[in-house]
Amino acid sequence: MQQRLVANRYALLAELGRGAMGVVWRAQDQVLGRAVALKELHPPQGIAAEERNVLEERMLREARTAGRLNHPAVVTVYDIVRENDRTYLAMELVDALDLATIVQRHGPRDSTWMAGVALQVLGALETAHQAGIVHRDVKPSNIMVRPDGAVKLTDFGIAQAMDDPRLTHNGGIVGSPAYMSPDRLHGWEASPASDLWALGVTMAHAVEGVSPFERTSTASTLHAVMNEPPVLRRASPGLAEVIRGFLTVDPTRRLTAPQARQMLTAIVQGATQVSLPQNTGGKKKGTAVKVAAVVIGIAVLAGVAFAGYQVFKPEETSNAGPTTSQNTGANQPSENSGEWTEASQLPVGAPLPSRRIATFGRGGDVPEWNLSGTQCAKDFLTQGSPVRQDVPCNGPHGIQLFSAATPLWDKPKDIAYPGTQWLADFTKNYCTEQFKVIEPKIKEPIGFTGLVPTQKEWEAYNDASAPGRQEVLCVLWKQDRSPLAGSLVG
């Protein structure tokens, strides 16, 4: 078989990867006698000329952008070629796996190892930012890690220079939704701060083993970015502090690159605890979760109704559920009403009614809860029964976790239990607003309830063997208690 030659120079040796828009080849530069990666733009048949032009311009931008940057963690671009109505980009060949593949094949990464990788990515980003370039698509699949630990940040194809026009002709946002910062989702321009948010999401993905905001649909993914800060169970305290600093909602208070470098360096050098450096303008304060309505394409994400709960007003702690008068049947709204039922002691095995607050975790109404994200479970919520195992949402199931929030995520994790009544009030507003997002798409009566952690569950957050949760949960099911046949989220 005759070897294919591009531009009478690059001999194609093997295919390294293929996507919807092209192929990456291992090639040999026969002029300089070196191995290169040759990226071939090959859009599918029938693509509009305007869209093809945008894709070609992105490849040209990748070449121009990388050519302006001189950093060991940035992939070097050697050449760009046009031949037979196709565009090729010759670039440095990196014999390495990307971070997403490493996590998929080998599991969550060690915090110290990840700190070393993050330091190198941070260096590449600092170089780009100093040159007036924002990467806009930092994510695990764009970070290559060689066996010797050297890192390469790839794919500057959608990078945006301050003096360069955008490549979107319809005003859309370009990038990967699960790694976009809330400020970008609000329509702000991409910035160094939004790149650092994406690096924080990437670090969380690597050390926890799963992408913290990735959900089953774009709408639910965007909702998670806005409302569901990740729970960090595997990250060391020091690395968790860096990640939380990057994932501060307010970009003006977000951890800066120099601050992060100081903290990551300390972790690599063996520090088990790191302190957040002070800003020159004063001590850095945490930013509370801002739940807002974001309109992007088909997604309308609600949540403003409980914004008042961002001001934390703790009350006396209690391990019991929200206490009220016993349920005698009087003054109790039906499951079809828009009111929440008052809490009362139910017999073991009794189904938990709709629009009721129950406790979960150690000593709770639901003594064990193992679902996360938008997972489903086989059985319905009943008093005293644990929910230990998830089942596929595309098959028959009883309940689905449709939303979750960590009300005090920006506070220290050893903060005192705020009390079940405070959590209940928060959760009633939160779950009601989140249900409004999916309600228009539901054609049958659906019940939903809110779960709040018990005090014991809350205080076990740092339990190494069985970490507790400091989240509130919203769960739904059919009111006639027949099985659900598919996911109702997104």
Topology:
Elements: E1 5-6, E2 10-19, E3 22-29, E4 34-41, H1 49-68, E5 77-83, E6 86-92, E7 97-98, H2 99-106, H3 111-130, E8 133-134, E9 143-145, E10 151-153, E11 160-161, H4 182-185, H5 192-208, H6 218-227, H7 237-246, H8 257-268, E12 294-296, E13 299-301, E14 357-360, E15 376-377, E16 399-405, H9 420-438, E17 446-453, H10 455-459, E18 472-478
Parallel strand pairs: 14-17
Antiparallel strand pairs: 1-2, 2-3, 3-4, 4-6, 5-6, 7-9, 8-11, 9-10, 12-13, 15-16, 16-18, 17-18
Helix pairs in contact: 3-5, 3-8, 5-7, 7-8
Could you characterize what this model shows?
By secondary structure, this protein is α+β, with helices and mostly antiparallel strands. The chain has 3 domains: 5-92, 2-Layer Sandwich (Phosphorylase Kinase, domain 1); 97-163 and 177-268, Transferase(Phosphotransferase), domain 1 (Orthogonal Bundle); 304-326 and 338-478, no CATH class. Helix content is 26%, strand content 18%. The strands form 5 sheets. A 6-stranded antiparallel sheet has the order 1-2-3-4-6-5, covered by helices on one side. Strands 14-17-18-16-15 form a 5-stranded mixed sheet. Strands 7-9-10 form a 3-stranded antiparallel sheet. Helix 3 runs antiparallel to helix 8 (257-268), helix 5 (192-208) runs antiparallel to helix 7 and helix 7 packs antiparallel against helix 8. Mean pLDDT is 79; it is low at 161-173 and 280-337. Residues 315-348 are annotated as: Disordered. Pfam families: Pkinase. It is an enzyme of class 2 (transferase).
